[in-house]
């Protein structure tokens, strides 16, 4: 029904934003990745998906078409609804999720909120053949040292968010402390020291 909504960001909350367009405020459920990229007062174009249920209608929206495509793929997996799909997209960006799925990385997918081993296996089974078909940008390998560093940063950021820090604070700390550490545990400790200054 709605391809996208273009307007001014009026509110930014932990799991949704409000965009005003022609005098109407649209509550748009979204991921931490999108929330991290917007701030109140921004004029944005947000790509949307209308979710219709028997007792509710809601809008999910994303800053990029890539994230919207991945949301639609995740939402197509049996037993993964919009809420869990948004949690997964808050856990990792679409290109990393694509890499996890294509490399059948059950361990990494299982770390996403609301995803256990069985759900991770189901995601791989149902989406592995769809990633290329839907032209989702992805990394084909996670074996290089640079990608290993990215994974360690992702894990550190998620740990900091779980401790109560915002995604923006966690990413900022991880970026500033990454050169001083050689593993995830060390990075988390350095980030906590940085954030408590």
TrEMBL record:
Residues 149-197 are annotated as: Domain III. InterPro entries: DNA_helicase_Holl-junc_RuvA_I, Hlx-hairpin-Hlx_DNA-bd_motif, NA-bd_OB-fold, RuvA, RuvA_2-like, RuvA_C, RuvA_C_sf. It comes from the Bacteria. It is found in: Cytoplasm. Gene3D superfamilies: 5' to 3' exonuclease, C-terminal subdomain (1.10.150.20), DNA helicase RuvA subunit, C-terminal domain (1.10.8.10), Nucleic acid-binding proteins (2.40.50.140). Keywords: Cytoplasm, DNA damage, DNA recombination, DNA repair, DNA-binding, Hydrolase. Residues 72-91, 107-126 form the Helix-hairpin-helix DNA-binding motif class domain. GO terms for molecular function: DNA helicase activity; hydrolase activity. Its main location: cytoplasm. NCBIfam families: ruvA. Has three domains with a flexible linker between the domains II and III and assumes an 'L' shape. Domain III is highly mobile and contacts RuvB. Belongs to the RuvA family. The RuvA-RuvB-RuvC complex processes Holliday junction (HJ) DNA during genetic recombination and DNA repair, while the RuvA-RuvB complex plays an important role in the rescue of blocked DNA replication forks via replication fork reversal (RFR). RuvA specifically binds to HJ cruciform DNA, conferring on it an open structure. The RuvB hexamer acts as an ATP-dependent pump, pulling dsDNA into and through the RuvAB complex. HJ branch migration allows RuvC to scan DNA until it finds its consensus sequence, where it cleaves and resolves the cruciform DNA. Homotetramer. Forms an RuvA(8)-RuvB(12)-Holliday junction (HJ) complex. HJ DNA is sandwiched between 2 RuvA tetramers; dsDNA enters through RuvA and exits via RuvB. An RuvB hexamer assembles on each DNA strand where it exits the tetramer. Each RuvB hexamer is contacted by two RuvA subunits (via domain III) on 2 adjacent RuvB subunits; this complex drives branch migration. In the full resolvosome a probable DNA-RuvA(4)-RuvB(12)-RuvC(2) complex forms which resolves the HJ. This is Holliday junction branch migration complex subunit RuvA. It comes from Tepidibacter hydrothermalis.
């Amino acid at each position: 029904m709605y391809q996208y909504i273009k307007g001014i960001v009026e509110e930014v909350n932990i799991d949704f934003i409000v965009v005003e367009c022609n005098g109407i405020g649209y509550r748009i459920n979204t991921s931490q990745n999108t929330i991290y990229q917007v701030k109140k007062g921004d004029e944005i174009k947000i790509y949307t998906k209308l979710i219709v249920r028997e007792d509710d209608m809601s809008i999910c929206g994303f800053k990029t078409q890539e994230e919207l495509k991945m949301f639609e793929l995740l939402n197509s997996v049996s037993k993964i609804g919009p809420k869990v799909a948004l949690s997964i997209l808050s856990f990792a960006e679409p290109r990393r999720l694509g890499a996890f799925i294509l490399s059948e990385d059950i361990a990494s997918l299982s770390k996403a909120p609301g995803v256990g081993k069985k759900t991770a296996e189901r995601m791989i089974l149902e989406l592995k053949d769809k990633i290329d078909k839907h032209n989702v940008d992805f990394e084909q390998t996670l074996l290089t040292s640079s990608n290993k560093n990215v994974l360690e940063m992702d894990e550190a950021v998620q740990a900091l968010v779980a401790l109560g820090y915002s995604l923006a604070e966690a990413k900022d700390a991880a970026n500033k402390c990454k050169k001083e550490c050689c593993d995830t545990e060390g990075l988390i400790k350095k980030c906590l020291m940085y954030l408590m200054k």
